[in-house]
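Input chain follows. Return structure tokens only.
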Amino acid sequence: MLVAAAGFALIAGSVFKELLFRSPGQGERPPAAISADPDPAELLECHRQVLHLLTVLGHETCELLALPPSGSRDELPARWEEFSHAWHDEWDVANARCRFSELADTNLGVAYDRLAQVHGDLQTMRQKYQSLVVRFDDEQAAELARMRRALDLSRAAFEEKARKAKRPDRHPAPALLPAPPTGSGEPTSPTAPDPARLR
């Protein structure tokens, strides 16, 4: 059951990243960079990309920390690195398209500058999440694995006890026969003389 859960989580994580970090298909061009005087639609698309990066960063970190431990010390860091590289590529795409490095603190207004600031801060947040994952793997993963193993052993014992309780007894005890009636008087010895003859 634990292996199945881990396998499902791995598949779900792969599908999740595929949906969120889908690269342009064959023949598709990456989105064009915004103009030096972007219209509101372009700015809203930049906002969507930055919000997407922030949401995915927190979501994927929580997904990784919630995975059932597989026993491999390298699995969690390896999966984080895989996600982190894909996320960083998407961060670069947003930076190039929205020209945050070029146009921040120019004449596009406070709203754009605020968006560029959040985009830059995302890298610092990524490093904090990475530290959290590494620290969790070092300090908590082994303890969680021990707790899960203990629960598995307890469940197996309970299930075995339940099976035994439902299993019919193959050698039932013989039924006891009822005792013969003894009558209302006291038992009489077969060799005792008949009281009527003694009169």
